[in-house]
């Protein structure tokens, strides 16, 4: 497996630095192929493409046809949700801002159709419509509000896709995922083709939402909710698998432990699609299926993916932060007040591994050359690296000092120099008589 990259994630609730095993598509392949070769995984999925990812590390646990672009239908709205959350985080929009319903938004066909033309609604209410009921009207209203026009917003979506490292196979022409022909007179004139998304990119986009904007899951986990209090019936979440449906006799058989998102999608061109996410025993997985044959099938195929993930893999602590190396307890810093400085491993490692996998981490320290080790230093400053080999995976973590390192004064350095001189001289004289 390729080297683990160290990345920072915002607002994830636990330690700030997360070891990420392969955020880029090319990094996934070695792990994926090794896993399949070793276990001969065949889930028998009847879909165009599928992916199973560990949300925290980005490890791919299963994939089929993951790099082939397909129309994603309303899974497109994950990017719309991401951009809305970015606006809120940046302070350019609040949940209390009023979102105006343009003619375009009110005319949007398909799911939604709750917003009346010319009427403004609180952004939070519109986001509920977008994330729970997959409202096309909500998506277009946000696009008009943020981008000025949906076409301009789609260009923002494509720019953001590049920033997130999504592949060139992913491309957006609108905020909804509707096919061009279904957009009618609102079809874009400067963006060609159709919206396309690979299953791998869908998983990576979902990962960005889960890690950077986990509050989205507080919306997507809601089974039913009224858009207006006066409505006779509530909006029903298109995601039948949310855990909250365990009490719903209509969807009880689909409800899945720990599942709280993320986005369904369907058009005649895309088939039935679903990006799901569930957390069990401290491990959050992201699943993607594209092109399932029916509404029920997309959830049944998703269950196969998630069951495989939770039954076959576990999060394992490979190395704890602040661990002392048995063969390297100190490093020598020539100009330090106390020249032998205690060091420890500065970064822990957690991996998703097969439950039956057994391996012992092999550690190799690489201390910076002495001419690069200069006092003063602050506690946790890096003085080298530690190569960690675990099974077929190779990682690198920092080697750090445990305490502030004070620089020796000029007089002490002078005495050291004099002492070193006489020590060398005496050693030379003794050598003459050997």
Number of helices: 11
* Structural class based on helices, strands and sheet pairing: alpha+beta
Beta-strand residue fraction: 15-25%
Gross morphology is elongated
What is the tally of beta strands?
18
SSE order: EEHEEHEHEHHHHHHEEEEEHEEEEEEEH
**What order do the strands of the largest sheet run in, or round the barrel if closed?**
4-3-11-10-9
Spatial separation of the terminal alpha carbons: 55 Å
Uncertain runs are 1-38, 424-434
Q: What is the typical, i.e. mean, pLDDT? A: 86
Helix content: 25-40%
Major β-sheet annotation: 5 strands, antiparallel
Radius of gyration: 28 Å
Brief rundown of the structure:
The chain is an alpha+beta fold and 434 residues long. It is 31% helix and 24% strand.
Structure, described:
The chain has 434 residues and is of the alpha+beta class. It contains eleven helices and 18 strands. The strands form six sheets. The chain has a five-stranded antiparallel β-sheet, with helices on both faces. It has a five-stranded antiparallel β-sheet with strand order 13-14-18-17-16, with no helix packed on it. The longest helix is centred in the last third of the chain and has 23 residues. The two termini are 55 Å apart.
Short key terms for the protein model shown above:
single chain; alpha+beta; 434 residues; five-stranded antiparallel β-sheet; disordered N terminus; 11 helices; elongated; 31% helix
Question: SSE layout and pairings?
Answer:
Layout: E1 5-8, E2 17-20, H1 25-39, E3 49-54, E4 60-64, H2 77-89, E5 98-100, H3 103-107, E6 120-122, H4 123-132, H5 136-147, H6 150-163, H7 180-183, H8 199-212, H9 216-220, E7 224-225, E8 235-236, E9 259-267, E10 271-280, E11 283-292, H10 295-312, E12 313-319, E13 330-332, E14 340-345, E15 349-354, E16 362-367, E17 382-390, E18 393-401, H11 410-432
Antiparallel strand pairs: 1-2, 3-4, 3-11, 5-6, 7-8, 9-10, 10-11, 12-15, 13-14, 14-18, 16-17, 17-18
